[in-house]
Structure formats: structure tokens, C-alpha cells
């Protein structure tokens, strides 16, 4: 980045450190923080949509749909997260390639499963071997987002299901007495009020999601944990910037990042909770009414 960084071995002191911290790999390290934030920004609403769908299905009067919603919630919550984080991307990747294989290579006469190997025709691979590296990275990141959404969507479904049941039944009966259909009462009475009951559980899920982002490293995505380990490890004279084991310093940076994210989240969630509690027959709403007197 700087002209004096052309030969790192000829500089020392602050100049060496400045060149080291602005090297190409460090720029990727800084960019990986954006990857984590992007994961959170995409996964949170997608998981919430999965959770809302699961909760609505679980409370459905149609038995097969109700069983499907409850099975999704119970199955995912009852299996260790790491299994789903590793299973979902692999299963989806092979599923997509299998469907493409059936469409693009109908004349293929070899078995797809050969022992432990899953082999499809080259035209069915996702992404194609000729695709640029950016396509491979986006595809892997998309599978990771979907895996996170499936897992945290199940937990969100359990929270939202409980929140829906917490809304007083008398309010639903009153809405129906005023001529509202069940659909209208659901969207106009139940859904707006359930969020105040759901927010404490969803807040905990958000915090857990933040702490789970290092699992991107296990899914092959070059996230902040990957680069912290890569850059912090001991480098010999064969490298451009040799140094001893500095991983503790890199992971201290990650510690500060996650603590900062947690503190910011607590402040935002506290404001949202106060806003949703306004006028509600809850402990938070009662405390606001007393404070206003």
C-alpha cells in the first residue's frame, strides 16, 4: 500500500508494523468482519421467517401441518447444532447437483454414488469448475446462511409459538365477537401483540447467533476466525513478514469485537423492548405506566 513497503525486510519499527497491518492478507482479515456482519444481517430475518412459519404451522388446526411444524422445531432443537451446520450445506449441495445431473445429463450411465464418493457429470457441478472464485465463495456463503437459518429458525419457532400462546385468549374471542374472521384476528390482534412476549427469547437467540458466527470457519468460509489463526500463527523467514506466534493478540481483537457487538445489541434490544411494552399489560408496560405518574 505504501511505497516503502516494497521490501519489508529492509524496514523495521513502526514502518514495518504499518506495512504488516496493511498487507493484502490483512485487508482480507478486515473484510472478513464484514462477512460476519453480512451473515447476521441476512440470517436474522431469514431465520425469523423460518421460525414464524414453523410457529404458525405448529398451531395450525390441520393435523399434518401441525405435526410438521412441531417435528421441525423438536428435531432441530434436539440435535447438536454442529451436526446441522455440517449436514445442511452438504445435503443441499448434493441435492442441487443431483437434480441438475438428472436434467443436464440424462444419458449418464455410471452410478452417482460410487462407494463413499458422490460423482455427477461436470455440467451439473455447483458451482462449475470454470466459475470465478467469487462465485464459489458466494455459493458457499449462501449454503452457510441457509444452515444457520434452519437451525436458528427452529429455536425462533419455539419462542414465537410460546409468544402466540401467551397473548390472552379473551382478546381473540373479543375480536371474533366483533365480527373478525380467524385470519383477521390472527394478523390484527395476535401477531402485533405477540412480539412483546417473544422479544426476550428472540433477544437471547440473537446473542447466541452472534456467538455462533465463528462456526463459519467450520463451513469453509474465510471468516475472522480463519484469518486470525492464519495471520497470527508463527511465520518463519520464508514469509514476507516473519514473526513469532501472535495468535493471542488476534483473538483478543475478536474478543473485543464480539463484546462490542453484544453491548450494542443490548442497547438496541432494550430500546425495542421498551417501545413494544408501551401500553401492554405486561411487567414492562406496568413499570412504564408507574413511571409516567
| CATH-level-2 architecture | Orthogonal Bundle
CATH superfamily: MetI-like
Main sheet attributes: strand count, strand direction, barrel closure: 2 strands, antiparallel
- Cα-based radius of gyration, to the nearest Å: 25 Å
Tell me the distance between the termini. Answer: 61 Å
Say what the CATH topology is: MetI-like fold
> Helix content range of the residues, please?
over 70%
Integer average pLDDT: 85
- How many beta-strand elements? 2
- Tertiary shape: flat
Q: Would you give an account of this structure?
A:
The protein is built from 10 helices and 2 strands. With 293 residues, it is mostly helical. It has a single domain (3-292), classed as MetI-like (MetI-like fold), CATH 1.10.3720.10. It has a two-stranded antiparallel ribbon. Strand 1 (113-114) and strand 2 (117-118) form a beta hairpin. The model has no long low-confidence stretch (mean pLDDT 85).
Amino acid at each position: 500500500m505504501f511505497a516503502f513497503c516494497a521490501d519489508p525486510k529492509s524496514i523495521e519499527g513502526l514502518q514495518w508494523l504499518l506495512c504488516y497491518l496493511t498487507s493484502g492478507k490483512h485487508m482480507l482479515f478486515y473484510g472478513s468482519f464484514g462477512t460476519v456482519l453480512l451473515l447476521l444481517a441476512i440470517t436474522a430475518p431469514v431465520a425469523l421467517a423460518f421460525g414464524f412459519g414453523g410457529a404458525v404451522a405448529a398451531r395450525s388446526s390441520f393435523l399434518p401441518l401441525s405435526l410438521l411444524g412441531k417435528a421441525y422445531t423438536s428435531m432441530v432443537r434436539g440435535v447438536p447444532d454442529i451436526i446441522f451446520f455440517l449436514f445442511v450445506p452438504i445435503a443441499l449441495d448434493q441435492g442441487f447437483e443431483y437434480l441438475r445431473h438428472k436434467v443436464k445429463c440424462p444419458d449418464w450411465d455410471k452410478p452417482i454414488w460410487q462407494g463413499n464418493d458422490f460423482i455427477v457429470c461436470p455440467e451439473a457441478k455447483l458451482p462449475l469448475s470454470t466459475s470465478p472464485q467469487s462465485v464459489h465463495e458466494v455459493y458457499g456463503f449462501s449454503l452457510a446462511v441457509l444452515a444457520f437459518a434452519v437451525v436458528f429458525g427452529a429455536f425462533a419457532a419455539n419462542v414465537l409459538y410460546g409468544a402466540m400462546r401467551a397473548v390472552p385468549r379473551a382478546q381473540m374471542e373479543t375480536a371474533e365477537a366483533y365480527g373478525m374472521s380467524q385470519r383477521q384476528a390472527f394478523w390484527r390482534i395476535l401477531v402485533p401483540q405477540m412480539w412483546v412476549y417473544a422479544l426476550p427469547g428472540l433477544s437471547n437467540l440473537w446473542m447466541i447467533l452472534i456467538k455462533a458466527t465463528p462456526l463459519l470457519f467450520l463451513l469453509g468460509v474465510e471468516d475472522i476466525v480463519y484469518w486470525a489463526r492464519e495471520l497470527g500463527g508463527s511465520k518463519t523467514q520464508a514469509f514476507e513478514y516473519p514473526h513469532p506466534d501472535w495468535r493471542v493478540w488476534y483473538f483478543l481483537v475478536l474478543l473485543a469485537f464480539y463484546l462490542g457487538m453484544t453491548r450494542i445489541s443490548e442497547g438496541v434490544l432494550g430500546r425495542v423492548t421498551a417501545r413494544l411494552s408501551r401500553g401492554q399489560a405486561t411487567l414492562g408496560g406496568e413499570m412504564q405506566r408507574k413511571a409516567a405518574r
